[in-house]
Amino acid sequence: MGRRGGSAVLSATVLLLVAGCSSGGGGASTGEGASASATSAAPSTAAGTSASVPPAKGSVTVLRTLTTGLKTPWGVAVLPGGDLLVASRDDGTITRVDATTGKKAELGSVSGVSAAGEGGLLGLALSPDYASDHMVYAYFTSASDNRIVRMRYDEKKPAGERLGAPDTIFKGIPKGYIHNGGRIAFGPDGMLYAGTGESGQRGLAQDKKSLGGKILRMTPEGEPAPGNPFHDSPVYTYGHRNVQGLAWDDKQRLFASEFGQDTWDELNAIKPGGNYGWPDAEGLSKDPAYQNPIAEWHTDDASPSGIAYVDGVIWMAALKGQRLWRIPLDGTKASAAPQAFLTGKYGRLRTVVAAGDGKVWLTTSNTDGRGDPKPGDDRILELKVS
């Protein structure tokens, strides 16, 4: 059975010049222009230095547009054969996209989705045992909360009947018109991680009894994961504003992207039990009680949503910033200034997913009510990255 909430939770800086950013798909943001930002490393589950540091500068090649005509795409999960499952935030549907032809096939609607503002059908993830259980996990906004469900996907059934009824494994995450978080992913440890938002209620981020403004870690059944930092609680970290990106490096260290408000968006190295400062700190802080980001962006240049790890580099999709950021890593530090690609070319960018062989899938988000849709939006791009 899923849990409605967790029990009470206890409680060498590197300067880089980067262009800044903020919220836009994850909340209001009013900053203008770009300026220098300070970045600082925060220890993760396994601090240290990588054996091989990627080059300071990289490259992005757009190989093709896989498919077009998607409405409010949000979560993406890659099936074992390479095809993609894509969630529509506003329609509450899941569509299968053929990774070779780009052909789309709608699997059906997820019952219980109540889309409004930034809420709706958000993150998707496949069970670690998908080959045997065929379970697809989804994070969505209901009429009363944000929750996580799982559904059986049976490809052998007739079209329109392949997606089973959702089984709720976790509920009670605060919902709002803004800041619903929504990214879910299974970690290398087989546990399910979820990034949540504070739903516009800032105080929830520091409230250790609340599920808002957190990274949660749970079993596939929705129970607090063994080894969590706080007894009998799914809370893994707290003090977040709106987490929408989760990715692990090749040393099983977790990184997360987070929307700021008026000043700084963040990329964080995640330390179990860490306090990431919101609302008392936004970006780099001198208070040792808070974990500092490894990179930060001024408003307008980021609004980070999804992230992916490829060959020593975090790739971060930017909504308001309308670009793809490359952040090379040296352990849990950024080893060079973040580098921007595709600036303004495809509009708002929501989700980036590793596709193997140095490639990523990248979704646009121009039909989300804050973009300027062009013919063909929204789309999925296949990129070669280095």
What does this structure look like?
The protein is an all-beta fold and 386 residues long. It has a single domain (14-385), classed as Neuraminidase. 1% of the residues lie in helices and 38% in strands. The strands form seven sheets. Strands 20, 21, 22, 23 and 24 form a five-stranded antiparallel beta sheet that branches. Residues 28-54, 364-386 are annotated as: Disordered. Residues 31-52 have a biased composition (Low complexity). Keywords: Signal.
Brief write-up:
With 386 residues, the chain is mostly beta strands.
Characteristic key phrases:
Quinoprot_gluc/sorb_DH_b-prop; 5-stranded antiparallel beta sheet; signal; mainly beta; Neuraminidase; Glc/Sorbosone_DH; 4-stranded antiparallel beta sheet; Glucose sorbosone dehydrogenase; 386 residues; 27 strands; 6-blade_b-propeller_TolB-like; globular
* Low-confidence residue ranges: 1-50
Give the H and E element order. EEEEEEEEHEEEEEEEEEEEEEEEEEEE
Structural class: mainly beta
Number of strands: 27
Which helices and strands appear, and what pairs or packs with what?
Layout: E1 14-16, E2 37-39, E3 60-67, E4 73-78, E5 84-88, E6 93-97, E7 104-109, E8 121-126, H1 130-133, E9 135-141, E10 146-152, E11 167-173, E12 184-186, E13 192-195, E14 214-218, E15 235-238, E16 243-248, E17 254-258, E18 264-269, E19 295-298, E20 304-310, E21 313-318, E22 323-330, E23 333-334, E24 339-341, E25 349-356, E26 359-364, E27 380-385
